[in-house]
Amino acid sequence: MTERSHVKLLIVGSGPAGYTAAVYAARAMLEPMLIQGMQPGGQLTITTEVENWPGETEIQGPELMVKMEAHAKAMGAEIVTDLVTALDLGKRPFTATCDSGRVVTADAVILATGAQARWLGLPSEEQFKGFGVSACATCDGFFYRNREVVVIGGGNTAVEEALFLTRFASKVTLVHRRDSLRAEKILQNRLFAHPKVEVIWNSELAEVTGATTPMGVTGALLRDLRDGSVREIKADGVFVAIGHAPASELVAGQLELHNGGYVKVEPGSTRTSIPGVFAAGDLTDHIYRQAITSAGMGCMAALDAEHFLAAEGEIEIAPEPLVAAIY
Ligand code: FAD
Ligand code: NAP
């Protein structure tokens, strides 16, 4: 295929939101181009079992995302392996500049850039990143066979990471800043029942300790938040799992953001503060942040974009009666 420099619809991001938008947009004959970014398949590619995708009692996250990509391709979406480094939403057509040098203009854009792991911001965390400090157990867990690891956080990700690490590590210590977890009960029950797991409550990571020759983690300094006391526990690896922040840097200063950087959309739609720019998935959602809700918003964004392009006279096909009735 000749490289296109202009498209009717550009989708930025290849998680559940992006691929679902691509499936719907391709079926609406919008000939969408989807740019995958640094993490083709999105966050589910760094997990193992997904047990809450309807129709699949259990499926590996990476496998689910490969299926979504294949589905979008089969429907006719153009999938591009590249990273959008700049997005000019100042005038239509909008302009995306990519890492490879590719420049694409688009009549409408769907932003589905999701979220990225948050870090604690400790100097020692930065120092040992890649040398014992990680935010991805599925990526790095294998290196901790018969070793002791610490996981920081109390949400679904932290508990899933801790359970995953029990496959390799001799001991997994989950450190949480409160006295109860926010993870789903089914995950909590699995965690508490696991013989390799210890939970340390009401504590935070004060610093990671380690050696520089060779670089490596040897322990974790934990601060008890009730009395401020600090103690060191042995650790060969520290996994930070304290949630994700929306990947909205591309559009900061151009689109209205809220709740700490999430792209603001009109309630009940995916319309952003700029007509023709739509947003879906974790990028817009500080509450649900699930694969299925992201996919649902991806569908909505494609339908919203289709309606927008029809109203602008960019496409000839009429919008679906159901969607038309909303406007
Ligand atoms: P993401 O999946 O975050 O994808 C964002 C996409 O945007 C990526 O492809 C990235 O490469 C791309 N991108 C970012 N910036 C750019 C750019 N500048 N240019 C081009 N592309 C860009 N949810 C569940 O429902 N069930 C689970 O079991 C589950 N397990 C999880 C386990 C872990 C470890 C994690 C971290 C999350 C889990 N979630 C789970 C949450 C789920 O993964 C997210 O809600 C979902 O992936 C969000 O989808 P998304 O499409 O909005 O964005
Ligand atoms: P999350 O739900 O936001 O949880 C983040 C955890 O980290 C919380 O327990 C929080 O503590 C803790 N934390 C935050 N900042 C901290 C800090 N500075 N120091 C110490 N602890 C800190 O994030 P998540 O677990 O990554 O999940 C993100 C979304 O993906 C959620 O919607 C989740 O449901 C979804 N997800 C789903 C699944 C699944 O369905 N199986 C799996 C993974 C993720 P507090 O509790 O005190 O706030």
UniProtKB/TrEMBL annotation:
<dbReference type="InterPro" id="IPR005982">
    <property type="entry name" value="Thioredox_Rdtase"/>
</dbReference>
<keyword id="KW-1015">Disulfide bond</keyword>
<dbReference type="InterPro" id="IPR008255">
    <property type="entry name" value="Pyr_nucl-diS_OxRdtase_2_AS"/>
</dbReference>
<dbReference type="GO" id="GO:0004791">
    <property type="term" value="F:thioredoxin-disulfide reductase (NADPH) activity"/>
</dbReference>
<protein>
    <recommendedName>
        <fullName>Thioredoxin reductase</fullName>
        <ecNumber>1.8.1.9</ecNumber>
    </recommendedName>
</protein>
<dbReference type="InterPro" id="IPR036188">
    <property type="entry name" value="FAD/NAD-bd_sf"/>
</dbReference>
<comment type="subunit">
    <text>Homodimer.</text>
</comment>
<dbReference type="InterPro" id="IPR050097">
    <property type="entry name" value="Ferredoxin-NADP_redctase_2"/>
</dbReference>
<feature type="domain" description="FAD/NAD(P)-binding">
    <location>
        <begin position="8"/>
        <end position="298"/>
    </location>
</feature>
<keyword id="KW-0521">NADP</keyword>
<keyword id="KW-0285">Flavoprotein</keyword>
<dbReference type="GO" id="GO:0005737">
    <property type="term" value="C:cytoplasm"/>
</dbReference>
<dbReference type="Pfam" id="PF07992">
    <property type="entry name" value="Pyr_redox_2"/>
</dbReference>
<dbReference type="GO" id="GO:0019430">
    <property type="term" value="P:removal of superoxide radicals"/>
</dbReference>
<keyword id="KW-0560">Oxidoreductase</keyword>
<keyword id="KW-0274">FAD</keyword>
<dbReference type="InterPro" id="IPR023753">
    <property type="entry name" value="FAD/NAD-binding_dom"/>
</dbReference>
<keyword id="KW-0676">Redox-active center</keyword>
<comment type="similarity">
    <text>Belongs to the class-II pyridine nucleotide-disulfide oxidoreductase family.</text>
</comment>
